[in-house]
Amino acid sequence: MDSKAGKQKKRSVDSDDVSSERRPKRAAACTNFKEKSFRISEKSATVEAKKEQIVAEEIVAIQLTSSLESNDDQPRPNRRLTDFVLLDSNGVLQPVEMLELGDIFIEGVVLPLGDDKKEENGVRFQSFGRVENWNISGYEDGSPVIWISTALADYDCRKPAKSYKKIYDFFFEKACACVEVFKNLSTNPDTSLDELLAGVARSMIGSKFFSSGAAIQEFVISQGEFIYNQLAGLDETANNHETSFVENPVLVSLRDYESSKLHKDLCNVTLGIDESKAVTSDQLMDGAEYEDVKFAKLIQEEEFRISMEQSRNKRSSTTSSSKKFYIKINEDEIAHDYPLPSYYKNTKEETDELLLFEVGYEVDARDLPYRTLHNWALYNSDSRFISLELLPMKQCDEIDVTVFGSGVVAEDDGSGFCLDDSESSTQSNDPDGMSIFLSQIKEWVIEFGAEMVFVTLRTDMAWYRLGKPSKKYAPWFATVMKTVRVAISIFNMLMMESRIAKLSYGDVIKRLCGLEENDKAYISSDILDVERYVVVHGQIILQLFEEYPDKDIKRCPFVAGLASRMQDRHHTKWIIKKKKFLQKGMNLNPRRGMAPVVSRKKAMQATTTRLVNRIWGEFYSIYSPEDSLEAIDEDVEEEELEDVEEEDEDEEDDTEEKVLEAVEVQKSHIPKKSKASSEDMKIEWDGLILGKTSTGEPLYGRALVGGNVVGVGSVVILEVDDPDETPAIYFVEFMFESSDHCKMLHGKFLQRGSETVLGNAANERELFLTNECITVQLKDIKGTVILEIRSRPWGHQYRKENIVVDKLDRARAEERKAKDLPTEYYCKSLYSPERGGFFSLPRSDMGLGSGFCNSCKIRKDEEERSKTKLNESKKGFLSNEIEYSAEDFVYVIPNYINEDGLNTGKRRPSFKYSQNVGLQAFVVCQLLDIIVLTEPKKGSKASFEVNLRRFYRPEDISAEKAYASDIQELYHSEDTYVLPPEAIKGKCEVRKKTDMPLRREYPVLDHIFFCELFYDSSNGYLKQLPSNMKMKFSTIKDDKLLREKKGKGVESKTDSVMIVKPDEVPKEMRLATLDIFAGCGGLAYGLEKAGVSDTKWAIEYEEPAGQAFKQNHPDATVFVDNCNVILRAIMEKCGDVDDCVSTVEAAELAAKLDENQKSTLPLPGQVDFINGGPPCQGFSGMNRFCDRSWSKVQCEMILAFLSFADYFQPKYFLLENVKKIVSFNNGQTFQLTIASLLEMGYQVRFGLLEAGAFGISQPRKRAFIWAASPNEVLPEWPEPMHVFNNPGFKIPLSRGLHYAAVQNTKFGAPFRSITVRDTIGDLPPVENGESEINKNYEDVPVSWFQKEMRGNMIVLTDHICKKMNELNLLRCKKVPKRPGAYWRDLPDENVKLSNGLVEKLIPIAMSNKAKEPNRYKGLYGRLDWQGNFPTSITDPQPMGFVGVCFHPDQDRIITIRECARSQGFPDSYEFSGKKKDKHRQIGNAVPPPLAFALGRKLKEALHLKY
């Protein structure tokens, strides 16, 4: 509906109603009336007619269908409706939404709700109602269900009558759009409008209602307000999703974009309303004007629906042959444009493509994985080179041409071909990958955008994006590229016409004849030669036109003329087939006779321990791969064959939140309510009184309950009120007799693993202790449970012993299960959703029977912490366990202090990477005194207020002052504020500058500031503190610092603070660390700098990254090899081959390691800490095919990574990955990872962190999993120290809970965000393509960040950048040097290149998108000095994954050193290899400041223990 959700009639939902049927989610309109028996009057007698009855009254239809199903317990009648129509009182068919403007009635067949197949049970009725309400449900299921409600019942609309189908289908597609938008925003609420539209288009592409993906996007935009209103209504009634839709910026943009787009048309339509249908003045009331607009919109929607239908019919009639058939290209006709025959020869061995993929599955072409193919060539079964043109550009049946290929396969890197240089591509000259030969190629496609062309071909195994061809095959590909240029030249001709329809097919041919010979689209000056070329190569041209976004160009006369001439010329056609096909297991490529080469780049099956292999293998044997392919409707006569563009994962796009996210984690729900027992059981105490509770009630140790012995430490079952929930299991802490002589127990809830974050990955026998407790009567006990409080000796030396014990335990469990004996459970961890993890059991506090419950104490302490109260002297107060008193320095939430005239709070219009502009750090104040109130003020519960003196920050004065000042500097003032205590967010210290710590750490993690200047806010004057002003500074509490102040060696000074080298923790006291998937060493560097880690070994697969690690960690032993091979070699060396699951290939390569390598391998007992970030192609959306298959999962390196932890059993383990690992594969990878670590015996904690909040100038969201051995302390999450406009990330748990590791800092943090100017403002200017490795700095560092990054470096290294081609350089120069400028700011003009060619300055694919605000947003973008960098990627380029890559002031792409600084790498850090290698090392690294913050918390955890 177009009205707001609140305008609908709502009915409350009975929370106890549980039904297997889907219900309306928004209004839940069908669950609040009990179904009643009805008395059928004689007047309402039915008439039998074949299989259905006809009745005149709705009440009768309800009663008749009620008797056919057992739903008497339903609170309100729910029926199925088929063969229905909606009509007004005049019998005119009306759309569903018309009920808001008039009475609508129903005709159709009513059936029982739950019986889809028994149509004979239906009862037909005629014209009853009125319809009171309609609703859309099915959001969670992903398929919309339309409900309409009368006063008596709710109807699930299944199938409309034929006469009503077109009207209803339009409304159903609107509902589908709502559901798809819901799914996209629920998965990624921070997406952009562009990405949202693309995602919805991909989901709805199979609908017959739309002709193309562009049509779907246009439809979604037109329904923006409708979609917004439906999803906004979900916020009021739905509790199953976390996303807030009302203020979601993308949803609001969709609504507003549609409103502005249609405003003018609505006005015109409103003026054209038929007077007979218009609201008269007599009827005018509040909202009447709105109803006029509403009616006008409904009329416009009807016109839009009719126009879409006409468009589909027209398209069907004019292009039906093209839908069903593909015109075959004649090889003889195109031979003139190709070289003489030549053959493919390659002396190198190549691997069969089929070895890389699993065959035998029926798949959809759209679900195949994407790869890049470099140095490629195509040939036939005789190895003769063959043109791509002979292959169809759509999937066809019975192809009579066979084309194979060879090349170097690599990950999909976005390679393409530059339009301004036919001989170039974005691929490097030395592709890195594995040489393979392909199975038969089935189809190919061309896409173009801006100045790039992307050619992709498909086999039955995968899609391959083509990089640069081999030198020998290049002439065969040149003709294809030339034809693409011809097509683009035609596009340019058409775009220059004021009326495209004026330019006929003949006119285009003539203009092509007139091209200059140096034009790369030039064919000939002979019109016959030109026409021959265009027609024989017409399939390429037509496919490009079909994909072109401008409708007028797609349907221009030239296209119709070309298609007609192609059909006249060619007579052989291929039938276009459906998208599903069976992957075959034989490769007929003539290269198959060659033995496949063993390549280091091949995806090797992970080497694992048997424990890891068992956990993951058993899971995938139970939860087998699901068929994700939807069945194709057999009744579909014509199938739309649209190329679906895969959506890029834009990890740095986060929209602005509207409200403060003030929670760290959602608290767990209250304990399950037990169901009181009605059974009469004999219950008596067994034993003497052991003591008394704190309230004087007697304690007992044992009781007899219905013949069962229940004692302290026993585990009992309690039945719960909800019959759909499993019985609750509780651990008995103590038992007592209440004052009213009831026999009671107090117990802690034991949660099944499947009800935790583990889900289906949990062991069905493992229970987890929680801090939820309950007190119940003994008579409520339904039984007892066998539970072992499990404890295993920890350490690698006990590993074999534990393996034997666990094997016997599993065998015993299987035996009991086979004999149908009760399950024996075990418990070894405490699960705390509030803390986001699994912890060692508090064994010393369990089952004491003393009347003390630690969980109760925790709960009471939390309640006390939540209170804010004055102390007895009324001169201080306690809040969140922090004591505040006069003269303390405190943080204040900036929203409580708004000063006019200051830069603080002023936010200029921003773009994606300037969203931090205007965000404020906490205001530092000094608490002067407490003001006691006689009564609380409105909006506050506190009985007092606080009087505060404000300290200003440099950024409060100006951006220039902030840039040149220390981030810890403050300015004293005489400004005071009286605020409620809830404005205070913690304490800090303000010292004299000379009392600052002598050692300086980056990032800054201490809440310490210094002050030596006074700021007069009345005139903006800054001066030295007056001598008569006696300021009370914080006292130094660090005894060591005091000793240092008495004369210990200050080595150097800067103009901000004194600095000495940080205290070095002796390496023998640090954790001996093994870094796996080490990259260039960002994680290792940060952890070592924190003084907790000593990286002794590292494993890295890529040679340049491994070399960089060696250069920066010279004392570490670095293995540049496959971690699967290294683990196999280690287990062989230790004699544990029987516990190793690996491939023959891994074993052979392990055996080939030289003796020196083997002698330096780390061994169990030597490693204290393992860390790393295992790569997985699936996490980035690259491998979309069969990603749930066990054979694919076995190749995921996360299994090998976990196996290192299992085999070495270090004290600590840290896994880092992209945030998508939490949701990838429906969360199964994340769950299995945690389950594996728990099975090993570890404590586990999980969370998501934003690196930008830890002192770098870029958004970078990462997932982390900590594991600690049972005897160690799990590290806490580090506190974010910088404001950053990125929403906090919550991990979904079970039972509707979510966990956030840290608080979002958008609304305040100790320090401001780091800007682009802070990061790179001191670096010297360089030109496009700069390649000089070493150069001078030229200027001194200005910002504190620059000083930290530069350190003692004299020579600047790696300040080099990629070289743009001439056209891109011209575009870069034309992009304005102002914040947020990008391609839309380019002038609409042509430029002449040095080769004489004239090109459009605005890229071709973007020139027609000026009216779509989010299309290609950010491409060719310039950084904002006051903003932040985009997420660092492996290949910055203006049309790449992240298009914002131009320097704020200079005409070039950002340099390698600038990217490194944006990640927090100091200038002393070295990178290795070519430019692309260095960018890759930086883009894949963990930011060192984030690693440092994690290391500090690990260090604190170690100190807590020792």
From TrEMBL:
User: Which Pfam families does the UniProt entry name for this protein?
Assistant: BAH, DNA_methylase, DNMT1-RFD
User: Which Gene Ontology biological process is one annotated for this entry?
Assistant: DNA methylation-dependent constitutive heterochromatin formation
Q: Where are the transmembrane segments?
A: none
Protein's cellular compartments: Nucleus
Record Gene3D superfamilies: 2.30.30.490, DNA Methylase, subunit A, domain 2 (3.90.120.10), Vaccinia Virus protein VP39 (3.40.50.150)
GO CC, alphabetical: nucleus
**Keyword Methyltransferase assigned:** yes
**Catalyzed reactions:** a 2'-deoxycytidine in DNA + S-adenosyl-L-methionine = a 5-methyl-2'-deoxycytidine in DNA + S-adenosyl-L-homocysteine + H(+)
Which portions of the sequence form the region Disordered?
1-28, 634-656
Query: Which spans of this chain does the record mark as coiled coil?
Result: none
Q: What class of enzyme is it?
A: transferase
Q: Which UniProt keywords apply?
A: Chromatin regulator, DNA-binding, Methyltransferase, Nucleus, Repeat, S-adenosyl-L-methionine, Transferase
Primary residence: nucleus
Active site annotated at which positions?
C1176
Compositionally biased, Basic and acidic residues: which spans? 1-22
Tell me where on the tree of life, at the top rank, the source sits.
Eukaryota
The question of whether DNA-binding is a record keyword is answered with yes
Q: Which InterPro entries match?
A: BAH_dom, BAH_sf, C5-Methyltransferase, C5_DNA_meth_AS, C5_MeTfrase, C5_meth_CS, Cytosine_MeTrfase1_RFD, SAM-dependent_MTases_sf
For this protein, the Enzyme Commission number is: 2.1.1.37
For this chain, the family text in UniProt reads: Belongs to the class I-like SAM-binding methyltransferase superfamily. C5-methyltransferase family.
**Sorted alphabetically, which PANTHER family does this protein's record hold?**
CYTOSINE-SPECIFIC METHYLTRANSFERASE, DNA (CYTOSINE-5)-METHYLTRANSFERASE 1
NCBIfam families in the record: dcm (TIGR00675)
Name of the featured protein:
DNA (cytosine-5)-methyltransferase
Q: Source organism lineage?
A: Eukaryota, Viridiplantae, Streptophyta, Embryophyta, Tracheophyta
